[in-house]
Amino acid sequence: MVEQIFVVGGEVEPPFFIGRNEEVRRIKVDILFSAQNNVIIGPRRIGKTSLLKNLKNSVRSDVLYVPVNCRKITEPADLFRLTTHALILAYEEKHKIKGLAKKFSEVFRGKITAATRSISEIGGSIQHVGNVYLRFREDDINEEELVAETFGFVERFANEIDEPTVVAFDEFQELSKFPGNIFGQLKSHMDSNPNVRYIFSGSSVSLLHEVFLKPDSPLYLMAARVRLEPIKKHDVSAYIRSRLKTQDIGISDSALDRIYDYTDGFPFYFQKLGFILYQNTTLEDRSFIDAEDVDIAFNSMLREFDSEFEARYSSKFSRQQQEILKYLSAERIRRLSEIARDMQKPSSSLTTSMRDLYYTMTVQKPQEGKYGILDNVFRMWIKRNILGYNELSSNE
Ligand SMILES: Nc1ncnc2c1ncn2[C@@H]1O[C@H](COP(=O)(O)OP(=O)(O)O)[C@@H](O)[C@H]1O
Ligand SMILES: [Mg+2]
Fold first, then answer.
1. Which of 22, 24, 27, 45 most suits a substitution to test ligand 1, by most atoms within 8 Å of the C-beta?
2. Domain assignment present for 218
3. What's the gap in Å between 311 CA and the centre of ligand 1?
4. Residue 42 CA: which ligand 1 atom is closest?
5. Which ligand is nearest to the CA of 46?
6. How confident is the model at residue 394 (pLDDT cuts 50, 70, 90)?
7. Are 329 and 172 in contact (CB under 8 A)?
8. Does 341 lie in the same domain as 251?
9. Measured from the CB, is residue 15 less than 6 Å from ligand 1?
10. Once rounded to an integer, what is the mean pLDDT over residues 238-243?
11. 289 — phi, psi (to 5°)?
């Protein structure tokens, strides 16, 4: 197999996973002492999913760690199926019981008796899952009850096996789209069971506020917040230099400065840029990278993201949000009043759009009245392709 130099995409593990010791340690303590639930919040590509993976690796011998990707969940039946299945799968992995999850999935194909018989060694809750699912298919219970049954199963199962259990819901904002009071149901199970802890991870500030920080919400203050920041410059530079060194490629300090300047420490981007730099250097049979090489690599990276950014820009934002992003892209941080002036609108007419951009972690608010696009690569793309384009065409 070819040795990997940088890893772009997917869940990365050491030596490709860097700079998150503090976060892993903090959440690990909460898990081991069953102290509190956690909610991890950060923009896309900051490394939430990878953090969850490494967290799992560091606690897997102490607890039953159950990862659930809510992106795959579009209705309560998915939540029920995927969560119960993930639980059984985690149990199978931890205790090396081959074929357990496979047998369990027969529960969902109606072969409950067969499934129960072969997995009865881990207790009675399996049969219950099968019966619940059958009743749901026969319209005997509704979706809200199915959600309650999901958390009920987690609770019963954890008690049966008598092991501390951690369920990690990645992209948990997807769950808020369900009808009914999913978080209220979760709350009642959280209270009653010290054996089960939850981790929520997502990129929606509004959900964080509504679910965990609003006094009348059922989960008010039920989880400690971990905000994922970019990886620190020192860590990024050391990482890139050492990865390149494995291929006998050197890099100047100014080149490393520039990489950080462009990527802002967003792991997805420095891995990608590192890879392009490595590729270009090898193709041209060179062994040293300088700042100009970074500019060239960054340009080709922007081009690679063209269709993705184009799609995001044109489909994820309202007209007014697009306008705001356009003028915001001119600099890293701008005043609301400046943007309003550019748009020839009063500042007050922009606050709703601004708030929504903030809530989806598209825009940050470093100080009162000041805003900036969080993803610097996306900002540069907008600046060149939207702001630049419009300036050119209006001069014609
Ligand atoms: N701690 C890390 N160190 C180095 N690279 C990372 C780290 N976390 C993430 N990455 C890189 O960023 C990419 C996206 O990370 P991911 O965890 O999927 O982000 P998110 O879930 O926040 O969107 C990964 O595929 C990997 O290339
Ligand atoms: Mg993710």
1. 45
2. yes
3. 22
4. 22
5. 1
6. very low
7. no
8. no
9. no
10. 98
11. -115, 130
For residues 192 and 171, give the distance between their C-alpha atoms in angstroms, rounded to a whole number.
25
| Amino acid at the residue 248 | D
Q: Is 334 helix (H, G, I), strand (E, B) or coil?
A: strand
Q: How would residue 216 be classed by pLDDT, with cut points 50, 70 and 90?
A: confident
State both tokens at 96. 């090396």
Buried b (16+ CB within 10 A) or exposed e, 319-343: ebbebbbbbbbeeeebebebbbebb
What lies within 8 Å, CB to CB, of 218 at 6+ separation is 181, 183, 184, 186, 187
Residue having the nearest C-alpha atom to atom 25 of ligand 1: 9
- Measured distance CA(172)–CA(203) in Å, rounded: 9
* Higher-confidence position of 124 and 162: 162
Q: Is residue 5 part of a domain?
A: no
Are the C-beta atoms of 374 and 268 separated by less than 8 Å? Answer: no
pLDDT at 396: 39
CATH code, domain with 66: 3.40.50.300
Going from the Cα of 118 to the center of ligand 2, the distance in angstroms, rounded, reads 35
What are the structure tokens assigned to 137, written together?
């298919």
72-100 pLDDT tens trace: 999 888 999 999 999 999 999 998 888 88
CA of 313 to the centre of ligand 1 (A): 22
pLDDT digits (tens, 9 = 90+) for 173-213: 888 877 777 888 888 877 777 789 999 999 988 878 888 88
Instruction: Tell me, yes or no, whether 238 and 220 share the same domain.
Output: no
**Range of 56's domain?**
21-227
Task: List CB contacts of 213: < 8 A, sequence separation 6 or more.
Answer: 220, 221
